[in-house]
Design goal:
Shape: extended
Distance between the termini: 63 Å
Number of strands: 6
Radius of gyration: 24 Å
CATH class of the domain at 38-156: Alpha Beta
Number of helices: 4
Order of helices and strands: EEEHHEHEEH
Length: 194
């Protein structure tokens, strides 16, 4: 009830009993979001800054990554500036193992999915073909992205609904397949010298 109350505003606080009745939660309302916005698709090329022996990213390492991404940007801008040519460069240069084999493409990106700087570029109202260099850093890397805005995708609320329906269908299929089978748990052990 607390979360669904339409008069709820940022910063409201309440104590809510758990559904099981065995405890309480202090709940702070942060924001209301219906997730009814278009996702986006973007291609990117990542050049990572090299970490030093302590795992830190020095200014020199960041500058080297920036210089390299700017070289790649200049190569792209000196060509035909098409999505296909960007994808080819991503395949050739990107250090993102999650996307370099598909031309750097990420589809149906939702708000908050990427590092903040990448996210800000994606949802800044760009048109297809816009590019920019953005810095990104998290616990796994630091480096520069050359981002190519492809366009808007499906509404995020629809993506959530489709994923939920797919998950329900997969769960129902698995339940149907294992129906009638009795789970068996066996422990095997082997002792050295016996």
């Amino acid at each position: 009830e607390f979360l669904r109350d339409s008069s709820r505003k940022e910063g409201d606080v309440s104590v809510v009993e758990s559904a099981a009745g065995d405890g309480y939660y202090v709940v702070v309302f942060l924001a209301r979001e219906d997730n009814h916005y278009p996702t986006v698709s973007a291609r990117h090329i990542l050049i990572r800054a090299e970490a030093d022996e302590n795992g830190a990213y020095t200014d020199e390492a960041k500058q080297a990554a920036l210089a390299r991404i700017n070289e790649i940007k200049a190569e792209f801008e000196s060509g035909d500036r098409t999505e296909e040519s960007f994808a080819a460069l991503a395949g050739q240069y990107s250090e993102d193992a999650g996307s370099n084999t598909n031309g750097g493409l990420y589809e149906n990106i939702y708000k908050g999915q990427m590092v903040p700087e990448f996210d800000a570029f994606c949802f800044a109202g760009h048109k297809s073909g816009d590019i920019d260099v953005v810095y990104g850093e998290n616990s796994g890397y630091a480096g520069y992205h050359l981002v190519y805005f492809v366009g808007e995708g499906d509404l995020y609320s629809n993506v959530i609904a489709e994923n939920a329906l797919l998950s329900d269908a997969v769960n129902a299929f698995v339940e149907e397949q294992i129906e009638g089978y009795e789970p068996v748990l066996r422990f095997w052990s082997r002792y050295a010298g016996r």
